[in-house]
Amino acid sequence: MAIGLILGILFGVLAVAGFAFGGICLSKPAKDSSAEVKRRNGILSLAAGGVFVLLFVIFPFSFHTVEAGEVAVVKHLGEARGVRTAGTYFDFWMTETYDYYDAKVQDLSIVTQAYSKDAQTMDVEMTVQYQIDTSKVLDIANTYGSLDILNSRIESVAIDTMKNVMAGSTADEIIQERAELSMNITASTMEKIDESYYVNVRTVVLTDIGFTDAYEAAVEAQMIAEREKEAAITKAEQELEVAKRMAEARLEEAQGEADAQKTLAEAEAYSASVKIVELARTLGYAVTETVDETGSSFEIDWGNSGGEEVILSYLQYLEYLAKWNGELPDVVGDGTGIMITIPLPEGASGGQG
Question: Can you give the pTM of this predicted structure?
Answer without folding.
Answer: 0.51
